[in-house]
Every structure is written in structure tokens, then in C-alpha cells.
Amino acid sequence: MKILYFWDAYCGWCYGFNKLFTEFYKNHTDIEIEIVSGGLYILENSNKISEYTFKNEEIVDMYKVEFGEAYNKVLEEGELVLNSVQPAIALNTVKELIPNSKLLDFAYDMQKKFFIEGKSLSEVSTYLELCEKYDLDYSDLALKLTIAFKDTNPIQQDFLKTLNLGIESYPTAVIEKNGEYFDLVGYATEAEDIEIHYNLISKRL
């Protein structure tokens, strides 16, 4: 049994859900989790942030998350280009360097770098700021990401997996066992809601 979590680092709804999901997962770190980047902003949909409309007030109301002043300034300036390729590469790089049980926390911290601190997720330096917290070697990660970010292919394996499984919205989180998939997200607005879904699913497995 494992959890499959389909998300995008630049997805505001994923940012809100991650607040709940990381709380839920603290009690279930024995379950393998696979985080799959969906590719929300790639190819012709990778543009300046000013070209998109966001529902941040709705996200705040639903998930009680914070959007930082630095992020709001980035929105106001409108120049940052949203590109899902680099955060997908970064997360897959870090997957090889930290325990699986810490991966969801790292993904949430990535998002906080953007949605609170207004940092670009296409910059290597953004991820290096997380080295101390996750006991990552600064020079090693800097080298790995610098090399990896030279990959200009907009179609990553994660994006293809998301497409092949028919995932069309984020966040999507499912429990997978023996080829069957069970929804974990539902209409969760609290970590307890996810726990209820998990318990109901567990009774069926």
C-alpha cells in the first residue's frame, strides 16, 4: 500500500491542501508516499504570473493558510514566470537524498518559499535555503540542481505519469493497493477529514 499524491508546486490549492496533508501524514509516515508533479505550468501555459487569475481568498477561507507579503508583491509586479519543470526536477532530485517520510514536508516547504516568501521555484538558491533543515549537503545539492536544471525538456516523466493515469486536477491524493485506487482528498478542509477518509479506506483493504 502507498499514497500517490499528484500536485504542482505552483498550485495554490495544493498549497492549501498541503497544510492539512502534512498534519495527517505525521501519523502515517510508515506508508510510502510518491509525490508526482503534474506540470500545471509548462509549454504554452508557462507565462508571467500576471497572465493568470488566482482564487487565493477562497483558498484562505477553505484551508486557513497564509499568503505572504513577499508573494503578494510578486503578484503585484507580475513579472515572475511560472514554470513547473524546475520544481518537478528539484523534488525528484531531493527524493534521492532524504527519507521518504520527510518528502511531503519538503514539498510543503518548497511551496512556502513561493507562497510566503515570494521566491522563484526555478532558482537553485531557493532550494539551498532548505539544506540545513533537511540535513542536505549544500555544495552537493547546489551541484546536482545546477546540472539538473540544464534539462530544458518540458515533458518530465512525472507529467507523463499524471497524464497516463488520467489525473486532471490538483491536488489529487489516493491510496493505491493491488492496482486499486481510493480517494483521500474528498472534501477535506481539516486534517481530521483526511484521517476519516483513510480509516474508511483501510476498512475496505
Mean pLDDT: 95
CATH second-level architecture: 3-Layer(aba) Sandwich
Structural class: alpha+beta
Span of the ends, CA to CA:
9 Å
CATH homologous superfamily caption: Glutaredoxin
Query: Hey, roughly how much beta strand do the residues contain?
Result: 5-15%
Number of strands: 4
> Helix-strand pattern, N to C?
EHEHHHHHHHEEH
CATH class label: Alpha Beta
CATH topology grouping:
Glutaredoxin
What's the helix count?
Answer: 9
Main sheet overview: 4 strands, mixed
Helix content: 40-55%
For the largest sheet, list the strands in their spatial order.
2-1-3-4
The total number of structural domains is 1
| Uncertain stretches of 5 or more adjacent residues | none
Structural shape: globular
Question: Using only CA atoms, what is the Rg?
Answer: 17 Å
Task: Describe what you observe in this structure.
The protein has 205 residues and is of the alpha+beta class. It has a single domain (2-204), classed as Glutaredoxin, CATH 3.40.30. Helices cover 45% and strands 11% of the residues. A four-stranded mixed sheet has the order 2-1-3-4, with helices on both faces. A hairpin with a 2-residue loop joins strand 3 (172-177) and strand 4 (180-183).
Keywords:
single chain, 205 residues, alpha+beta, Glutaredoxin, 4 strands
What is the topological layout?
Blueprint: E1 2-7, H1 12-25, E2 32-37, H2 56-63, H3 69-77, H4 85-95, H5 103-115, H6 124-128, H7 138-148, H8 157-164, E3 172-177, E4 180-183, H9 191-204
Parallel strand pairs: 1-2
Antiparallel strand pairs: 1-3, 3-4
Helix pairs in contact: 1-2, 1-5, 1-9, 4-5, 4-7
